[in-house]
Design brief:
The chain is mainly beta. It has 4 domains: 33-169, Sandwich (Immunoglobulin-like), CATH 2.60.40; 174-307, Immunoglobulin-like (Sandwich); 311-410 and 419-436, Immunoglobulin-like, CATH 2.60.40.1220; 453-572, 2-Layer Sandwich (Copper Amine Oxidase, Chain A, domain 1). It contains 4 helices and 53 strands. The strands form 12 sheets. The protein has a 6-stranded mixed beta sheet, with no helix packed on it. The chain is elongated.
Length: 573
């Protein structure tokens, strides 16, 4: 009797344990299903374009996977503000031969459903089953911060509920810069390396028109030597040759980005060339390309090169009958200074170098040989880096020209002996002695630009420290600097769409943020947001360009104008 009581006591003790165990077997344990993502990228908002944001990974324990048939789980992006869309791609299942189905637009464009259509029995009973699903989303504008995916399932489902962050929205920015602004005076130049840098992963939008570089009139792109190089980040983002496309008669370069990065990325574009129609360029200055595209790019204008022409030589190239007492001058399109390679300038005859001294005055380099010989062809060579402008940009093309002196005078002319040469010139096959002489004698004058009012050097204009290139040169009239208004506006970041011309009234309209400016040719009144202001000079037309008083234009935009009389430079900032 006592033994039966002991057995009953043991059974009553074990019974609750068996009941608890049966409950645990009958339902998945807490945490049997978990959710994660492969990455949380930063994305642009308001583009209206679908964005790949990585993949959602659903992990099921062996017990949950074995009980998953016909079970569903629902995913939803926020419903407000309107404009979210969610697309789940083809699932990839590991450790199971079971199957699932995906239903996108499950009632709304921002919701999707996953349903297990055949049991996800683990191939390896000791390991979890994972479902990996690519996610593509669209995010409306004015969204900032974490973008969360809401996950819901019915009671008793093997799928758990919750939320997970799939992306971050905010200010994404791509910065472009160039490492070397080269000066050129011929029709083709290889540019410095252009660097593209994301401030955060995903800033470069995946699109055939992610970046757009537009050259001004008279210039075209040349992709013959282009290459790219990853500095750091995601190699898959870096475009290859096939990802560069030219448009609009090769004046526009599109850079295609194939997918958004999973980490901040920086790469360089190397060997990009630019061709110039020199007949369409009317003065020296920087070549500024407009930068935009679907990515948020800064700056919106980039100086890629500097047109630094040699406008004349005296004697001209190929001249004959040149006096043996001639000094040699080379005139540039703007004021100059000596570069690091000034010692490389040479004057030669028959391959031998001739001694000379040199000097610079304004925009002119002069060579003073110690007399020239009769009936001799001389060659002048100015190498890369010998001359630079006042902004420190050096000449990046070699330049040379030649001339021939006049024959020795016939006997009886009173011009000297009949020996056939003047012995005052010294030649040597060694390096010539080059001596600086400053200043040049006053008969050497700078290149002048003449107007009806005055004659003066063409002023050089910079915007926020970047030189501005014009197809019609700025000029000074009655102590006022005038410049083509459209190019001036572009250099200050005003886009093409915000500069318009009314041919009926000869009025140009410029829109910048909350300001609207109107300038009318021949009128000394300009309009700011509907209010007339008076100028002491009026705009005029020059070579089909509207010339406006620079100071009135800049100050109306709230900018500061600085004038350097010595260098004839205007800086707008």
């Amino acid at each position: 009797m006592i033994k039966k009581k002991e057995e009953l006591s043991r059974f009553l003790f074990i019974l609750p344990l068996l009941f608890t165990l049966l409950i645990l077997i009958a339902r998945p344990a807490s945490g049997a299903t978990t959710y994660s993502v492969t990455l949380v990228p930063s994305i642009a908002t308001g583009t209206g374009m679908p964005i790949d944001v990585g993949s959602l990974i659903i992990t099921l324990s062996p017990g949950a996977a074995s009980s998953s048939v016909n079970k569903s789980v629902y995913f939803a992006l926020p419903s407000n503000p309107p404009g979210y869309t969610l697309t789940m791609g083809t699932p990839n299942i590991s450790n199971s031969s079971g199957s699932v189905s995906i239903t996108n637009n499950n009632g709304n464009s921002y919701t999707s459903q996953l349903k297990v259509t055949s049991t996800l029995t683990p191939t390896d009973p000791a390991s979890d089953v994972t479902i990996t699903i690519p996610l593509t989303i669209t995010v409306p504008g004015d969204v900032c911060g974490d973008i969360k995916l809401d996950i819901s399932a019915s009671d008793g489902s093997v799928f758990s509920c919750g939320t997970i962050t799939v992306a971050r929205a905010g200010t994404l920015q791509v910065t472009v810069n160039i490492d070397n602004i080269k000066a050129f005076n011929n029709s083709s130049i290889e540019l410095g390396n252009i660097y593209v840098h994301e401030n955060t992963a995903g800033a470069l939008i995946s699109s055939p028109e992610s970046l757009r570089f537009k050259l001004p009139t008279g210039f075209t792109w040349d992709l013959s030597g282009i290459s790219t190089n990853l500095i750091w980040g995601d190699l898959g983002v870096v475009p290859t040759l096939g990802h560069f496309k030219l448009a609009d008669n090769n004046t526009i370069l599109f850079v295609s980005i194939q997918h958004q990065s999973n980490q901040p990325t920086r790469f360089s574009i190397n060997g990009l060339r630019m061709n110039a129609d020199l007949n369409r360029l009317r003065g020296p200055g920087p070549v500024i390309c407009q930068v935009n595209g679907l990515s948020n790019v800064t700056p919106t204008s980039l100086t890629v090169a500097k047109y630094f022409p040699i406008v004349s030589t005296d004697p001209p190239d190929g001249a004959t009958g040149v006096s043996i007492s001639k000094n040699i001058t080379v005139s540039f399109g703007e004021n100059i200074q000596t570069g690091d390679n000034i010692g490389g300038v040479t004057l030669t005859k028959d391959g031998n170098q001739v001694q000379f001294t040199y000097g610079i005055n304004g925009n002119t380099l002069a060579l003073y040989p110690n007399g020239l010989d009769y009936s001799v062809t001389y060659a002048v060579y100015i190498p890369i880096g010998a001359i630079k402008d006042y902004g420190g940009i050096a000449l990046t093309n070699n330049y040379s020209f030649s001339f021939t002196t006049r024959p020795y005078p016939s006997s009886g002319s009173g011009s000297g002996s009949s020996s056939g040469s003047s012995s005052s010139n010294s030649t040597t096959s060694q390096q010539a002695t080059v001596t600086a002489v400053t200043p040049i004698p006053q008969q050497i004058t700078p290149l002048m630009t003449t107007t009806n009012d005055i004659a003066t050097l063409s002023p050089q204009i910079t915007a926020n420290g970047q030189p501005v290139i014009f197809d019609v040169a700025p000029e000074i009239k009655n102590d006022r600097t005038f410049a083509p208004v459209r190019t001036l506006a572009y250099s200050l970041g005003i886009t093409e769409n915000n500069v318009s011309w009314d041919n009926t009234t000869s009025t140009v309209t410029i829109i910048s943020n909350d300001l609207t400016l109107k300038f009318t040719v021949g009128s000394n009144l300009f309009i700011i947001n509907g209010t007339a202001q008076e100028m002491d000079m009026s705009p005029y037309i020059k070579n089909d360009r509207t010339m406006v008083p620079l100071r009135f234009f800049a100050e109306a935009l709230g900018l500061t104008v600085e004038w350097d009389k010595k260098t004839q430079q205007v800086n707008i900032k």
